[in-house]
Amino acid sequence: MNNSVILTLSGGLDSATVLALAAKQQKEINVITVNYGQKNWEKELQNVKKLCEFYNVKELKIIDNTWLGEMGGSAITDENILLKSIDDDKIYVPFRNTLILSACVAWAETIDCNLIYTGSIDGNSEDICPDNTPKYYKLFNDLVREATKKNIKIIAPLLDFNKKEVLTIAVELGVPLEHTWSCVTSNLYPCGKCFSCSDRKNAFDSLGMNDPNYKVDKVKKYESK
Ligand SMILES: [Zn+2]
Q1: CA of 102: how far to CAs of 149, 154, 155, 176, 177, in Å?
Q2: Half-sphere exposure of 154 (CA within 13 A, CB side)
Q3: For residue 191, how far is its CA from the centre of ligand 1 (angstroms)?
């Protein structure tokens, strides 16, 4: 039986936890990471490589989708759009998740892999990201079943969990938290203001943990134009 999985990895806490889960399941792991022009790409790639090494990933495929970032439309990619508050909904990147999953499906067909894992969490946040819900994954799986010659299943193992719960799982699985990065606006220091920074900080605080990457003296003061 084929025991391989293709996993989307951004170097963030969520996808790193799914990677640890796949490793615990003793799967043969192949990773896709995508440069879609995100502002924190250098940091993401740095952590992706460290995590792949840590978890003995068989192959890392780096996809170039920088054209997506050039289109703009998101605070994650567009230098002209700044996040003004943690509630700002401009963290959605137009059609990003479907593009990333499409690359995974194409690779899965090529290497006879039947399983794809993604790091999506908080599946009920459809107001912000419509491509991150149980309904979305059901419909995407329906499309894959219709559009491919293989029996490929896409699973988001953490879709029902929030950040605090994911951090709890990450700790249990021994994820190297120092090799995960959450801030979506910066490569150097976490901005401390974006939704991802806030969500991560609240999770660590609620568990009484210190975040190895988010030391207070290193947090860059948020700058707004
Ligand atoms: Zn941030």
Answers
A1: 14, 11, 14, 28, 28
A2: 32
A3: 4
How many whole angstroms from 176 Cα to the centroid of ligand 1?
20
Tell me the C-alpha distance between 121 and 162, whole Å: 6
pLDDT tens, residue by residue, 85-125: 666 778 889 999 999 999 999 999 999 999 999 999 999 87
- Rounded Cα distance, 217 and 220, in Å: 8
* pLDDT per position as a tens digit, 175-212: 999 999 999 888 888 888 888 888 999 999 999 999 99
Nearest to 46 by CA among 8, 11, 20: 11
In CATH, the architecture of 4-218 is: 3-Layer(aba) Sandwich (3.40)
